[in-house]
Amino acid sequence: MRAHAQTAGVSLVAQQPLNNVVRTALQALAGVLGGVQSLHTNSYDETYALPTEEAATVALRTQQIIAEETGIPQVADPLGGSYFLESLTDQMEAEAGRYLAKIDELGGMARAIEVGFPQREIANAAYQHQRQIDGGERVVVGVNKYVSGKPERIPTLKIDHAPEEGQIARLAELRGRRNGVAATKALDGVRRACESEEANLMDAVLIAVKQSVTLGEICQVFRQVFGEHRDPGYV
User: Fold this and answer.
1) CA geometry: angle at 120 spanning 28 and 117, to 5°?
2) Taking a C-beta distance cutoff of 8 angstroms, is the pair 193, 204 a contact?
3) Number of other CB atoms surrounding residue 89 within 10 Å
4) What pTM was estimated for this model as a whole?
5) Secondary structure of the chain: what % helix, strand, coil (to 5)?
6) Beta strands 38-40 and 4-6, pairing class
7) What pLDDT score does 233 carry?
8) What is the pLDDT of residues 102-112, one digit of tens each?
9) Number of continuous H segments (helices) and E segments (strands) in the chain
């Protein structure tokens, strides 16, 4: 089995953001020790904005340092035989088994989602986690312990509005030069296909695309015919 892992974005905090570099490094190391084949490391500034090039480079260098300087990848299973790790594995398997049994009792995962079981479990876990932080039971350095009180100032990525404005202009130009009658007819064909039990929806979509109907226009028809998904756990 091939496994991909990503460091925990939820563990990143806005207070003393450079500490996030250390958190990410430890989490990345844990993933490598666990044997992942693919890894993504979060950037330290993601609690503020999309990563800057500098922050993304630090995240990349974190992986490269582990790969090139630690020697860990040269060992197939660095933690093999660890009684502590084996006990955690047994505990995880037992807990997962209990969850699977509960889901089976509910009638399978689809039914569990319909009644909001996984959504409630995630929300409750997040609530308990935050209560532990607020109460000091779970230490987060810089948040509820070793607080500096100094204002954090780090460079953040500023998004230029030019790409958005350019795309809006290109979209207007496209709609201005396309055959409006043919586009409307093709979009009506998409609607009929959505409403039909027999028609091939993909064929209708391809016809619409060839008439320069936009993705947004096609998706709007989907919304009108099929509706929009609402998480049953929060409705």
Assistant:
1) 105
2) yes
3) 11
4) 0.78
5) 60, 5, 35
6) parallel
7) 66
8) 999 999 999 99
9) 9, 2
Convert the pLDDT of each residue in 170-196 to its tens digit.
999 999 999 999 999 999 999 999 999
Torsion of CA 163, 169, 171, 173, to 10 degrees: -150
* CB-based contacts of 78-83 (< 8 A; 24+ apart in sequence): 78/33, 79/33, 79/34
The token pair at 145 is 């312990």
Annotate 83-138 with DSSP letters as a single string: HHHHHHHHHHHHHHHHHHHHHHHHTSHHHHHHTTHHHHHHHHHHHHHHHHHHTTSS
| Rounded CA separation 79/45 (Å) | 31
b/e map 149-160, b = 16+ CB within 10 Å: eeeeeeeeeeee
Which residues make Cβ contacts (< 8 Å) with residue 50, sequence separation at least 6?
157, 159
* Nearest residue to 21 (alpha-carbon basis) of 125, 136, 154, 130: 154
Write down how long the chain is. Answer: 235
Residue type, 134: D
Left, alpha or beta for 175 (phi > 0: left; psi -120 to 50: alpha)? alpha
| Torsion, CA 29, CA 30, CA 36, CA 40, rounded to 10 | -60
8 A C-beta contact, residue 72 and residue 38: no
State residue 175's pLDDT score.
95
Centre a 10 Å sphere on the Cβ of residue 224 and count the other Cβ atoms it contains.
11
